[in-house]
């Protein structure tokens, strides 16, 4: 007789997907992800349909693969609909009677963007602390000293930073954490370059405003536009490597000028990160309701730009056009990497190996 293997479940594991740890939500021991899924499904009156006749296995690695079976398992394990506070859970915290807001407060981030911005601020601080961990001689002064960097040096820091931005996405770009590990890797294989470039272009406007000779790479390092060959100074054939990747440098210069001209602020760049992320997620996993997340971020970005740049009704359009430049930049990078590998054995580390499943 065949016996189906079932993952062991401890007292502190989620009754829905077996994730550890778990705590009581809606009357059942469950993880935060499953609790949020149950609440959102009920409040938004989602009507899911299983494509496998209702026989899907719901465990941590694939808990997002079938929302129909996941919701059915939530209810079957005793999650109580009556414990959901509809007047609070549909639109966030309970509304309290407050005094009218001052005009200056209207420019504050909308709810979703506010959470994302806080996560990005933490990512920046983590990245700064990584610099001091690697340069302890500057730890007491807390002064970041910048110098030109090679592609090899930048790839090392970029790889270390993946831990920080993955934490940011899971904690602040809800509901990214609901994706399985396999799904997250699939998304990040495409999104990684776009996030990296957005982060660089924004911080470039912060640390090198109006400087046309430098481009921020990471804390303590920049790309020297006057001497781009230094980027490949570690390679045995510097000239060949520089020629291969010249299209990247040329495109970076163009996009840098656009970011500086628009003076993109922190909230706007975080919104662009969110749009780029959820566009990719919607593209890979249609029909799961993630398009609603994308629409909400775009709506909040429009509201934010109206409040902060009311004199420029087309600003949100100009911001969205920046994403097209980033997509082109990512494509050019992929082409250059392929050409470099085939023709010249020139292939800087891109760290996308971490996202292979």
UniProtKB/TrEMBL annotation:
Q: Name one GO molecular function term.
A: RNA polymerase II cis-regulatory region sequence-specific DNA binding
Annotated protein name in UniProt: (pine wood nematode) hypothetical protein
A single GO cellular-component term on record = nucleus
What family is this? Belongs to the nuclear hormone receptor family.
Q: Please give the SUPFAM superfamilies that the UniProt record associates with this protein.
A: Glucocorticoid receptor-like (DNA-binding domain) (SSF57716), Nuclear receptor ligand-binding domain (SSF48508)
> Looking at the keywords, is Flavoprotein present?
no
Superkingdom of the organism of origin: Eukaryota
Q: Which UniProt keywords apply?
A: DNA-binding, Metal-binding, Nucleus, Receptor, Transcription, Transcription regulation, Zinc, Zinc-finger
- SMART domains xrefs: HOLI, ZnF_C4
Q: Where is this protein chiefly located?
A: nucleus
UniProt cross-references to InterPro entries, sorted A to Z: HNF4-like_DBD, NHR-like_dom_sf, Nucl_hrmn_rcpt_lig-bd, Znf_hrmn_rcpt, Znf_NHR/GATA
Q: Which GO terms describe its biological process?
A: regulation of transcription by RNA polymerase II
Decide whether keyword Transferase is in the record.
no
Q: Where is the NR LBD domain?
A: 119-357
Q: Where in the cell is it found?
A: Nucleus
Q: Where is the Nuclear receptor domain positioned along the sequence? A: 11-86
């Amino acid at each position: 007789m065949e016996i189906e293997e079932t993952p062991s479940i401890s007292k502190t594991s989620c009754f829905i997907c077996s994730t550890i740890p778990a705590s009581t939500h809606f009357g059942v021991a469950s993880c935060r992800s499953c609790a949020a899924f149950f609440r959102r499904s009920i409040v938004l009156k989602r009507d899911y349909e299983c494509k496998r006749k209702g026989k899907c296995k719901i465990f941590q690695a694939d808990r997002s693969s079938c929302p129909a079976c996941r919701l059915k398992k939530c209810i079957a394990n005793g999650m109580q609909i009556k414990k959901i506070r509809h007047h609070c859970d549909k639109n966030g915290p309970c509304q309290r009677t407050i005094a009218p807001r001052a005009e200056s407060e209207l420019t504050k981030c909308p709810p979703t963007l506010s959470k994302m911005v806080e996560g990005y601020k933490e990512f920046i601080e983590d990245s700064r602390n990584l610099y001091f961990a690697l340069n302890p001689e500057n730890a007491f002064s807390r002064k970041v000293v910048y110098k030109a960097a090679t592609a090899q040096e930048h790839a090392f820091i970029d790889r270390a930073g993946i831990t920080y931005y993955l934490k940011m996405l899971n904690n602040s770009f809800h509901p990214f954490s609901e994706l399985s590990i396999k799904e997250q890797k699939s998304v990040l294989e495409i999104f990684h370059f776009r996030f990296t470039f957005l982060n660089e272009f924004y911080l470039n406007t912060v640390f090198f405003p109006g400087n046309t000779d430098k481009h921020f790479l990471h804390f303590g390092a920049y790309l020297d536009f006057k001497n781009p060959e230094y980027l490949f100074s570690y390679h045995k054939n510097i000239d060949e490597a520089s020629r291969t990747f010249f299209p990247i440098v040329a495109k970076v210069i163009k996009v840098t000028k656009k970011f500086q001209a628009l003076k993109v602020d922190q909230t706007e760049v975080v919104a662009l990160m969110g749009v780029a992320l959820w566009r990719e997620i919607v593209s890979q996993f249609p029909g799961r309701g993630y398009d609603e997340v994308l629409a909400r971020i775009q709506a909040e970005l429009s509201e934010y730009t109206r409040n902060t740049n009311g004199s420029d009704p087309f600003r949100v359009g100009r911001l969205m056009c920046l994403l097209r430049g980033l997509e082109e930049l990512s494509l050019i990078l992929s082409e250059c990497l392929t050409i470099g590998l085939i023709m010249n054995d020139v292939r800087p580390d891109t760290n996308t190996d971490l996202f292979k499943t």
